[in-house]
Amino acid sequence: MADPPGCCSTCATCLLCPYSCQWITAKKEKRKGLRTTKSDCCWFLFLFCVFLFTLVWLYFALVILNDFHNFNEFIFKQRKLWLDWSLVLLVATAVLISYSSVLLVLALCLQLCGQPLKLHWVHKILLILTALVVAAAFTGLEIKWAEEWRSARVSLQATGPFLHIGVVGGMTILAWPLASFVYRTRSTGLKVFLLLVYCAAMIALYLAPLGITSPCIMEENQLPPKPALVGHRGAPMLAPENTLMSLRKAVDCDVQVFETDVMVSADGVPFLMHDEELTRTTNVQAVFPDRAALNSTAFNWTDLQQLDAGSWFLERRPFPTVQSLSAGDRYQATQQRIPSLEQALEAAKQSNISIMFDLRPENHSDYQNFVNATLGVILESGIPLQQVLWLPDGFREQVKQQAPGVQQVYGRKRLQNEKEPLLHVNLPYQDMSSEEIRQYRQDNISVNLYVVNKPWLFSVLWCSGVSSVTTNACQVLKEMKHPIWLLPSSTYLMIWIVVDCFSFLVILWAFVLLKKCSHRRRPAESETDVLLTKINSLMQE
């Protein structure tokens, strides 16, 4: 297998060394007998598949970052260990994708240089391990976090047009080593098979935009109003969640609704708390070590007021934004206590924002008394009832009778035979398609989707026409004046045509150019073979 023009022996040696894990010189007499076998081709195909597999996982890893705080909370609930596992995920994924990418690039360069693809056994083992690790990651995703598959489908509405361009570009570059292989191999059947597969893949890619849909492919004048922001437990990236400081930071981010969770103490005082246990967001283990594992509702209000509800925020740093807090904010965080619902309602009234909450735990035997206590505080607070958004389904009819001005928000889609029309729904962003959002908007139903933290996701929902989103990152979404991208259909059509035509011309050029190179090498190779044969005959004589 002769080296093509422009591929020096030094370059070939430098490529062979890391790929084969041994110093094989590029001189022909040292490489005699080294050829790419069928087994080597199979390993190259396996390498290519592992690269694609890892690349898909990288995409999933970037998508699930929007929801990764939920995973951190889940791990803490199970193991009482707090760590930002997103860093572990990104580092591990970066190592896997870098390793498979480097090997693939080396293999493609070796093919272009006419060198044997002798993958070392160490790389073979590592590639198998890489495939197993990624497969385990996908399996764990399916078992413990299956809703992220729907998140990936939503993400394609934001990335579909750009993924198409990227894949077309990658497949176009692949034409060079493919053409080199086709002109070198003597197996006609293999040539025909590879060319048919490649052509079928490229035709499918060229026509892929016919199946790509995105709500952001629209005219500028069709863009719906920017969704309102709902602060998820306030502004949890800027202050300890479910505290008055968090509420004030949310107000600074121009949120229209403060979303929180309410529990009722043992002596009947409603207070703000998300977890059933106090261990994650207070110092209960230091103050009441013997009672730390008890349900939050087992503590009376006097006990709860002794707990520090802010220092954990600085110690555990649930979000990277904690590092950038000012000295004043850090001090203020350490002074936070668990707020009562009465205090939160007063702060919401003064700030002129609405408050939306769940009442937990729903399966508690004393839940009706929880509802009564919560309603009593709302009615006594003096807050305009239209600023209160009621989420709990339990005893909803009782709430409607006692406080008819409270806005009822439902955590489900509307039914076909709905007795009373829904005016507000609150759902995970994975549960509603763009078409459903548009239909609800036309029917004057307010749709709030949660939890939306990343600008790409906010952009898709903005283009879809959602009314509001619940977010941890109100300070980020507040600054967005426009979706990340917005393309008129005519512009996208032009991009599609230009990309496909350019790709086709580059592929055609690759095959024509490498064919000419192969023809130039053949006479030289034939003359060399004749000369070597004569020299061998003379030596034998």
Task: Using brief descriptors, characterize the structure shown.
541 residues, alpha/beta, TIM Barrel, 20 helices, 9 strands, 8% strand, elongated, disordered N terminus, PLC-like_Pdiesterase_TIM-brl, glycerophosphodiester phosphodiesterase activity, hydrolase, transmembrane, GP_PDE_dom
The count of helical stretches stands at: 20
Strand content: 5-15%
How many individual β-strands? 9
List the domain count as a whole number.
2
CATH superfamily of the largest domain: Phosphatidylinositol (PI) phosphodiesterase
| End-to-end distance | 28 Å
> What is the fold-level CATH name, i.e. the topology of the largest domain?
TIM Barrel
Q: Secondary-structure element sequence? A: HHHHHHHHEHEEHHHHHEHEHEEHEHEHH
Largest sheet: 9 strands, mixed
